[in-house]
Design goal:
Layout: E1 10-15, E2 20-27, H1 29-36, H2 39-42, E3 46-50, H3 55-66, H4 74-91, H5 102-114, E4 125-129, H6 137-143, E5 148-153, H7 156-169, E6 174-178, H8 184-190, E7 194-199, H9 205-212, E8 216-226, H10 231-240, E9 245-254, E10 261-269
Parallel strand pairs: 4-5, 4-7, 5-6, 7-8
Antiparallel strand pairs: 1-2, 1-3, 8-10, 9-10
Length: 270
């Protein structure tokens, strides 16, 4: 029998050689003592108390990342675990994301962010517009440190969280800006500076293209991360913007181990 007494509240997992039982709630020493004397203990179950990501969600992150050609080592996984922990903690006090489950964050934030990795040259300068709690920019920076990443969001509390995570994770070459890309001062400071603009925040694709244009270098690219798209709408938009952009690629995908359909659209500035 292996019982590890927790020094402070931790997540609980109980298992034997056939059964795995996960508890979302946390435990303390009194609850631990109840388990020690319970029928589970007498039947040969083991208790492990862990502070890190649940095993199934860690597996989802690691295997899901492989879908995009990313192989996560132990240290990188620990960085994502810390990011996850801080996001969940901050989200209890301020509304950083409507997704509040660990699995939801791993799937709809971490893996969705990593889906554009195959389309980013290693030494790109990137502007993440409407980055919220740091998506997709921070996960991409974690797995590709050579990227020069600038995140911008109009909500001060979200930018405060981004800066906290950047400091905590030691992400050099990463800057979080409070403001809007429409602001004159932002445009003066960052105009024609970036190889790529990317965003998950815009429902209106044309707005993203219009706002991105002055920030891009010549032959710079816009990467739009969308749900399912209407091909007729994309053809119409491509025709309207033909003097400024060409559509390079449309990539439909389904997020790993889910039914969530996503589309990546790559536009090149002419």
């Amino acid at each position: 029998m292996s019982l590890l007494s927790p020094p402070h509240p931790l997540r609980l997992t109980i298992f034997n050689n056939k059964t795995l039982i996960n508890f979302d709630s946390q435990i303390n020493k009194k609850e631990f003592a109840k388990f020690r004397d319970s029928a589970y203990s007498q039947r040969g179950y083991f208790m492990i108390c862990v502070l890190n990501m649940e095993t199934e969600n860690k597996f989802l992150l690691v295997e899901g990342a492989k879908t995009f050609g990313i192989y996560l080592g132990g240290k990188t996984i620990e960085v994502f675990e810390l990011y996850l922990k801080e996001l969940l903690k901050w989200n209890q006090k301020i509304n950083l994301t409507a997704i509040r489950s660990e699995k939801g964050i791993v799937l709809k934030h971490f893996l969705d962010s990593l889906s554009v990795y195959p389309y980013l040259p290693k030494h790109s300068s990137i502007l993440d517009i409407g980055s919220g709690a740091g998506f997709p920019g921070i996960p991409l920076k974690i797995i590709q440190p050579t990227l020069e990443m600038t995140l911008i969001d109009s909500v001060r509390k979200k930018v405060d969280f981004q800066r906290h995570i950047i400091r905590m994770l030691g992400l050099k070459g990463t800057e979080a800006i409070h403001g809007r890309v429409q602001d004159k001062g932002i445009l003066q400071s960052f105009g024609r500076r970036f190889d790529i603009t990317l965003s998950r925040a815009f429902s209106d694709l044309r707005t993203l293209l219009v706002l991105s244009f002055p920030f891009l270098k010549e032959e710079g690219k816009v990467i739009a991360m969308k749900g399912e798209v209407d091909n007729k709408e994309i053809r119409f938009l491509t025709e309207i913007e033909r003097t400024r952009y060409r559509l390079q690629k449309t990539v439909p995908l389904i997020l790993p181990s889910s039914s969530f359909k996503r589309t990546i659209l790559l536009f090149e500035k002419i």
